[in-house]
Specification:
317 residues
């Protein structure tokens, strides 16, 4: 993997450290932000368009681009009244960009807090911050990472239950159909989502926000750099749909909504989407199915697909 936060070194002695000016993220900013996120070598979902845009309202995300570097300000996952920053992404050396955030916090009179720091960037950040830094594991916000070939085939004894679920769906629905989610299907998918979400989701704050964010994605689907697909049952009705994003060698599954009354629909769309995306993007090696947000049922469901790694994240103060 490429180093996460450096691809060229500017003349840093000319940068005013107090120059950060944050503004609310909008759809119009997406091309610029998406371009910079392509350099963010971590596989956690926080450095994706979906990870930012679907959670703008929940975390109050704002951004600043300076010297080809993306700065994101928001709130911590476990303390929503506390200002926090993502690790900067872009041209500046991490030591310089972190120093700019420290300077900004000093000017504003607020603590310097970095949230959702990926485990593979933690040592580098601690080396910059020194012995005064305090590290806190973000329980419930770790990402589940899978081998994409495993999800695309469900091969092996450990995947027998998932294969059985898929076979049940195929047997019950011999005329099933899997198709790309195109703009002309959005009205039908939106109606399906409106009918399924309240019954399928929990009433926790993250789940309620995620439901609203899914509706916003569907309403502005053509604005997002997303890949998506629909699974239909025997009668031609939607059984499930899914929405993902590709960065480097990883597919990020941001949305997966299922009619749970249709046996095997969840396993079927997971397998079919992974296989479909492997054909479209041969470089893909992993699937990130994101966090469980502390929901025990969601955790069990994600573990049932046998992740190859659980990507820990940390708050660093």
């Amino acid at each position: 993997m490429k180093p996460i936060f450096s691809f060229r070194r500017p003349a840093v002695d000319t940068i005013p450290l107090s120059a950060l000016r944050f503004k609310r993220i909008s759809l119009a900013d997406m091309p610029l932000i998406n371009k910079l996120l392509q350099n963010a070598g971590s596989r956690t979902c926080d450095y994706t368009i979906g990870g930012l845009y679907m959670w703008i309202a929940y975390f109050g995300y704002e951004y600043c681009v300076l010297n080809d570097t993306l700065f994101i300000k928001g709130r911590t996952e476990n303390k929503l009244d506390e200002t926090a920053f993502c690790l900067p992404v872009g041209a500046l050396p991490l030591r310089t960009s972190v120093g700019m955030i420290q300077d900004y916090c000093a000017l504003k009179g607020i603590p310097t807090v970095f949230s959702a720091v990926p485990a593979d960037r933690l040592d580098e950040l601690l080396d910059i911050l020194g012995d005064d830094a305090r590290v806190e594991n973000l329980e419930g916000w770790s990402d589940y990472l899978y081998d994409i070939s495993s999800l695309a085939t469900f091969s092996g004894k450990h995947m027998m239950k998932k294969r059985n679920h898929v076979n049940r769906f195929l047997a019950d629905n011999p005329h099933w159909k899997f198709e790309a989610l195109t703009y002309d299907l959005i009205p039908e998918v939106s109606l399906f989502f409106a009918g399924q979400s309240l019954a399928a989701d929990t009433d926790s704050a993250p789940a309620i926000h995620e439901r609203n964010a899914c509706a916003e994605v569907l309403a502005n689907f053509s604005s997002y750099p997303f890949e998506a697909a629909v699974l239909r049952d025997e009668s031609g009705e939607i059984a499930a749909f899914t929405v993902g994003e590709v960065i480097g060698d990883t597919l990020y599954v941001h949305i997966e909504k299922i009619n749970h009354e249709i046996s095997g629909a969840g396993a079927a769309i997971c397998k079919l989407f992974a296989s479909y995306m492997m054909r479209r993007y041969p470089q893909l090696r992993y699937v990130n199915r994101e966090e469980d947000c502390g929901d025990e049922g969601l955790r069990a469901a994600k573990m049932a697909y046998h992740p190859t790694a659980i990507l820990q994240k940390y708050n660093v103060r």
